[in-house]
Amino acid sequence: MIELKGINKTFFSKSGKVEAVKNVNLSIEKGEIFGVIGYSGAGKSTLIRMLNLLERPTDGTVTVAGNNLSSLNEKKLRSARQEIGMIFQHFNILWSRTVRDNIAFPLEISGISKEDRKKRVDELIQLVGLEGRENAYPSQLSGGQKQRVGIARALANNPKVLLCDEATSALDPKTTDSILELLTEINKKLGLTIVLITHEMHVIRKICHGVAVMENGNVVEEGSVLEVFHHPKEPITKDFVNQLSEPEEMKESIAHLAASNDGELVQFTFIKGKTGSPLVTDLIRRYDVEVNIIQGKISHTQDGPYGKLSVFIKGSQPVIDEALAYVRGQGVEAEVILND
Ligand SMILES: Nc1ncnc2c1ncn2[C@@H]1O[C@H](COP(=O)(O)OP(=O)(O)OP(=O)(O)O)[C@@H](O)[C@H]1O
């Protein structure tokens, strides 16, 4: 659905030349929710803005729904852009118009008749869950409701692709989750391809199928969310993945417990279907070991569960080795982090 080939973007400003995006090649499938994650200044906004040519690449081609956008004249580009909706961190809605009139706005521009507009706006209001708020003004809406208006507007002309530029960054965690759930629902219901940029791994974990990690203008790592979570290669990716599984207080409590426990500290990593507790029960039953659970967290991704469990295992070394071989034989990774 989306193909980026050899994309570079260089800005020339008073303070000099900035290579914001460097030689990016990406392929995003139809119906996929694809996330781009990176810290501030990594080049994410510039990259997503090139997907609808709000920003023109210095080099390379952008193909969306079969259209090579970089080769189109302004008129053809305008019609190709109808296939691409976009939502923003600060909602981009019209403050002097009601919810209904905000959503109708892109339909007016496309020359849709009044009667058809009303029908379409009603459908969209229902789709994004804004029933009862049709006549409210943006200033009377919560942040989550404003973003729902943004989403309805972006979907008004039935695009094939929805671009989300930090769409949940201005929202509190609970509202963030409700907007992410709405995006997942829309993706499933409409088969819409969604590309989002974020600096929060939680967003990637919760709704994306695929992810690209950006650093200094480069895509440094890319793959399915489970694969990248399971085997992060680059230091920056490891940092992002650890944000989810190892909050600071957990690290401290492990250090504290390590000082007062003997045995081997082992981290089990579960992926796709396997979960922690049956395995621990199994270990205690089969082997003469003591297993002391330190911390565990199972997260759910779009493609299945992913989780880590840290345990102290006490016993004789040969039995521990045998027990760990058994764990690995169950398709669970077992990494010895510390032994006394
Ligand atoms: N119009 C512009 N002119 C000059 N430099 C720019 C312009 N737009 C972006 N840049 C620079 O390009 C680099 C990448 O910026 P970009 O906004 O794409 O990063 P980002 O990952 O989206 O970060 P943030 O989340 O802070 O927006 C930065 O160094 C930024 O200063």
UniProtKB/TrEMBL annotation:
Gene Ontology BP term (one): amino acid transport
SMART domains hit by this protein: AAA (SM00382), NIL (SM00930)
Domain ABC transporter, chain residue ranges per copy: 2-241
CDD domains the UniProt entry points to: ABC_MetN_methionine_transporter
Keyword Protein biosynthesis: no
Keyword Translocase: yes
Transmembrane domains' residue ranges: none
Keywords, sorted A to Z: Amino-acid transport, ATP-binding, Cell membrane, Membrane, Nucleotide-binding, Translocase, Transport
InterPro entries, per the entry: AAA+_ATPase, ABC_transporter-like_ATP-bd, ABC_transporter-like_CS, ACT-like_dom_sf, MetN_ABC, MetN_ABC_transporter-like, NIL_domain, P-loop_NTPase
SUPFAM superfamilies: ACT-like, P-loop containing nucleoside triphosphate hydrolases
GO molecular function, one term: ATP binding
Full protein name: Methionine ABC transporter ATP-binding protein
Source organism of this protein record: Guptibacillus hwajinpoensis
